[in-house]
Amino acid sequence: MKLKTKLANVQTWQEDPGEPPIERTPIQRQTPEMGRPPLPVAVAGEVPAESGDYPGSTEFRYWVAADAMSRASEFWGPLMPAGTTWNRNVDKVLTAQLDSGDDLNAYYDGQGVRFFKQTVAGVTVHSGESPDVVCHEVGHAVLDALRPQFWGVLSAEVGALHESFGDMSAILASLSVGALADEVLIETQGNPTRSSRLSRLAEQLGWAIRQIAPTAVDPDCLRNAANNYFYRDPVTLRPNEPASLLSSEVHSFSRVFTGAFLEALAGIFFQQPSRDGKALVEAGHIMGRLLVDALLATPVVPAMYAQVAAHTLAADKADYDGAYGMALRSAFIRHGILSPSDAVTAAEAAPQHMAAITGATPGRGAQLATITVPAERYGLTESFAVSTPAEQPRFAVAGADPAIGSLTPVDPERAAETFVEDLFRQGRVAVAEELLTPNAAVVDTTRTRTHAITRESSGALVLDRLLFI
Ligand SMILES: [Zn+2]
Q1: pLDDT value of position 447
Q2: pLDDT of 2
Q3: Of the residues 199, 310, 400, 436, which has the fewest C-beta atoms closer than 10 A?
């Protein structure tokens, strides 16, 4: 009997095209299978021929995006609890639109993922041509499938956690592609906490943004996971800073959690019997499983980073009998996500919360409590409601005080109000003309709006999310 073998191959970038001029060589991959449950993906438009494409062509970009969409789906899919589906208004299949207009941007809008292009210094940069960027956006959709509550809650720390999950998705989904893990170990001399093409996220998009706004992103990429940012309560941070400083802006603040994640990943890798590329890929799978299990069960609270960290320690106890506790505690302590004393407290309390972690299901969560923001604060004609991170913490933990011990978390109402203030100052809120008084404090900007004040069927106004960038 003649066996039908699949010979088709496509070309793609390993994890990013890199900074111009492009010196990287595309890699060969088997034609992606995009419809796999539980997280089927697609790329809009006609499917081009599989081979013979070259960087710069529409066909090449199609396969880069298709391969990246499917690698994220294939990484996260097996880790999803039974019954997980895409959320919100995604129509069964998460579809990428590759040419959504002129911008240096990409986003997940609860329907699909969108990518843009812009010509900078003579180079046209397509955000959808970077597997890092594609896997980041799919990461938003994956976390939204797991925890729809995170979408609308007004909290800098929850928003930053979503951004960090996007970056962790980029790192984890690409780790097993081609020889990336081996190359990273060569580049870092066996220590993946060091800066490498794995830790440097979206080098090409970062380069393009730097041509226009030199201090807006890291000097060598969009965001580098190899960093030493130490936790601060975002309520105490400014809403904007140059990239070298931490701000409460969600992408900036996400770097604290992603930095701890990279150290945890490396710590788990160091514990593997052979410290080779295969071991690094295996560490990635362990880390992915711990994150999914922890995030499924974490209540929505103001000190969200510390709460997720404590749940990760409990997930390690439940999934791996605590094998990676030291690696995880070290990473969270070094980045101030847990104080040393809270790391001890969380580890001690972890066994009694294992059942909550193994029993968590996707889409969990009740309606969050809301508060009303007065109309006059922003010069509007009507007050509006916002959701607050007001669930009961499972672990009594918070971020580290730079001096000693832990900070006292702010109450959920203050966490929400300061985030709303940040969004208005950053020009991220879309407000309809008829809601503005002549003296409204709505910043006039061409920036992409992430939030909008909308009227519910009850007639009340709410500030809700439009998209994750
Ligand atoms: Zn994002």
Answers
A1: 87
A2: 44
A3: 436
Burial, 353: exposed, middle or buried (Cβ in 10 Å; 0-12, 13-18, 19+)?
buried
**Helix/strand number for the chain, H first, E second:** 13, 15
Which secondary-structure segment (H or E) carries 300?
none
From the CA of 329, how far away is ligand 1's center (Å)? 26
Ligand 1 center–CA 138 separation, angstroms: 9
From residue 298, how far is each of 150, 160, 202, 318, 433 by CA, in Å?
Answer: 11, 15, 29, 15, 38
Interhelix angle for 325-334 vs 304-320, to 10°? Answer: 170
Q: Where are the domains of the chain?
A: 9-358, 370-465
**Ligand 1 geometric centre to CA of 105 (Å):** 10
Q: Measure 137 CA to ligand 1 centroid, in angstroms.
A: 6
Residue 160 CA to ligand 1 centre (angstroms): 9
Q: What is the pLDDT of residues 83-133, one digit of tens each?
A: 999 999 998 999 999 999 999 999 999 999 999 999 999 999 999 999 999
Q: Residues whose CB is under 5 A from ligand 1 (ion)? A: 163, 166, 468
pLDDT in the model for residue 51 = 67
Three-class SS of 86-116:
CCCCCCCCEEEECCCCECCCEEECCCCEEEC
Q: How far is the CA of 441 from the centre of ligand 1 (A)?
A: 26
CA 134 to chain centre: 11
Q: Give the helix/strand (H/E) hosting 430.
A: strand 429-430
**Residue 11, SS3 per DSSP:** strand
Question: Which of 318, 365, 306, 302 has the alpha carbon at shortest distance from 147?
Answer: 365
Instruction: Note the pLDDT of residue 5.
Output: 47
**132 C-alpha vs ligand 1 centroid, how far in Å?**
11
Helix (H) or strand (E) holding 202: none
Q: Ligand 1 mean position to 469 CA, how many Å? A: 4
Pairing relation of β-strands 429-430 and 451-455? parallel
Q: What is the DSSP letter of 436?
A: B
Span from the CA of 439 to the centroid of ligand 1 (angstroms): 32
The pLDDT of residue 1 is 45
Joined together, the tokens standing for residue 293 give 């299990």
d(CA 72, ligand 1 centre) in Å: 15
pLDDT at residue number 178: 86
Compute, in angstroms, the gap from residue 361 CA to the centroid of ligand 1.
24
Q: Which segments in the chain show pLDDT lower than 50?
A: 1-5
Report the half-sphere exposure of 210 (CA within 13 A, side-chain side).
16
